[in-house]
Amino acid sequence: MRTIGTIQGNEIIEQDDGSVTFAAGATIDGDGASGQFGGPPCYAPASYGGETLDILANAGSPGNWYGVVTDREGTPIVQGPGDPCPGAYVSATSLRLLDENGKFLPASSPFAYVDSATVPFMVVPPMIIRGVAGIVMGCRCVVTNTANGRSVEGVVADGGPSDHLGEISVACAKAIGVPIGSRHPANGGGASSPTIVYHLYPGTPAVVNGVTYPLQGS
Amino acid sequence: MRATNSSLMWLFGLLFTGMLALSASGATQPPRKPGPFACEIRYHFREHIRDAEPGEKPVSAASHEREALPLSRAAVASGASVQLVEGRVRHLPYRFVVRIVRPKGARQETLEVNILDRSGKPLAGFPQRMPNPLTRTGDSTRKDFEVPVSDTLTKKIEKSLLARDQFLTHVTLIVGIDDDFLSSARAR
Prior knowledge:
Chain A is built from three helices and twelve strands, in the order ββββββαβββααβββ. By secondary structure, chain A is mostly beta strands.
């Protein structure tokens, strides 16, 4: 057992079996949600009538779109009539999904990313991704809310800031009873106290709701 | 025996009077008071990923820094029961006034949010008043309000609050009533 490092006063431990554990609060990440499985998208233009998981300002503004998938000119891709959520933007996770031939799905496809609205996932800082031997992105994780004993199996699907620890998808928050925002679930929710225990298994592909996720080295 | 009977009569009389008094106080009882709530300011940011390859996500997931406002306190204004949060935070030149008001005899509460600049003038879009949307059950324990910040203020916040490669995306005021939110506000 060894300490990989400490972020916000919370120690990140690599266990003897190679798995990684830490306790922290929880911020909510709406990225990756594009309505691909019937849930709300993370971001959409102001003209979009439905619910979104996050405030559009978190995705950027004209001329500087950093939080949604864009074309070569930097213009956000808007889903068309044949896409799962017409009118919404495509939101990305660090984990890119593959087609049946094992190749990356096109970056502009809503199905190329992990849906925050319906898939329990967690977010990890670079310290963990670079600090262990096994591949972290796409690996199995278990997230437990010690305040109520609820636990959920998920996938490591996104990269977080270097100095923050403890972030989960909207679906993960709902599964373990972490409050979400009423207007924008990813924006107002979260757990402040370090009552969430994260356990991830680098090198072991996650299987969630019957879907096996690809391990993705950096 | 006579003494016991008279004691019993006295006891029944006392009980009857007590019940009458309770009933009367119920009739004039003031409306139920709004429960306590907490507010915090969230500075949302992302971080540029320095070594991102073409085609990879160039920024981190969004996260936030936060500053708490004082926990709400009970007050009475024009006969209405009020829970009030009033205060400032270190990184914004604003005063926040958030009230949950239950007028005398009313069943419905109102949530009032106002953000004032240094001169006492409300920011654009404020004050906001609405039927109180916060309930202790389900997914409606918190509500967010976007706080306007100028480009100059954004740069100041990035310099004083955020780490290298991080940039501010927006600022929100969160009003919440769930246990996690309240206990966090009490702890700070």
